Amino acid sequence: MGERGRSTSDEEFSFVSRVVKYLLFLFNMIFWVISLVMVSIGIYARVMKHAEAALSYLSVDPAILLMVAGVLMFLITFCGCVGSLRENICLLQTFCICLIIIFLLQLAAGILGFIFSDKARGKVTEIINSAILHYRNDLDLQNLIDFGQKEFSCCGGVSYTDWSQNMYFNCSSENPSRERCSVPYSCCLQSKDGKVINTMCGQGMQELDYVHAGVFIHTSGCIDTLVNWIHSNLFLLGGVALGLAIPQLVGMLLSQILINQIKDQIELQEYNLRHRSDPWR
Q1: Is the pTM of this model over 0.70?
Q2: What pLDDT was estimated at residue 53?
Q3: Region class of 204: left (phi > 0), else alpha (psi between -120 and 50), else beta
């Protein structure tokens, strides 16, 4: 009777913690839902977007980037969800390895971006100049540039004269555009009490020098302004990076704990089987 009771107790005992198991499942379920939302938004943005040449304006179309990130997150969190529920070591190891790879890639990107800051700056300059060139070709791109220039109080890449690269704002005498030698209204100095936006405030600004143009528009380029903003908000950016890293570290920790618990449970079951088949062992 004592042997039977002890055997039953061993079979009921489990190394696998329900708290860890369902906490990992809930953790993955939240990000699984987020991944579906990301994919849906990406598909919607891509379907609703009429301009198909967005890839030539920016390095990567944000809609495609969102869809790719959403699909990857969906697959990884799917491994985590099913692996935690089914206590599948293979799926949990796949989930953990993927998180480790993503974490290391993010860390490497941050380090390389810091070390090769000049090359990164050059790449950003190239992207901004390409965006300026296609400013009127894509409404989404136009709104993005206007938002950036108003938010950072800047104009152009290096200076306001960069807008001469755009065919509509070009200062050449052969340019028949009414916006010749102008800059977008988002470059203009906004009055605090101005309720009506003067969209023609940038007319002919490229013909003026820095001092005279500075009375009406922001003359500093967005690249230097962005670099200065980054330098003055390092703690904020560090907090964002930490906020991205913590969920990954939590996922790695929980999955590794569950994997070890499952392995211990398997060893216990094998021991019980050996003990049942040969009670003298």
Answers
A1: yes
A2: 47
A3: left
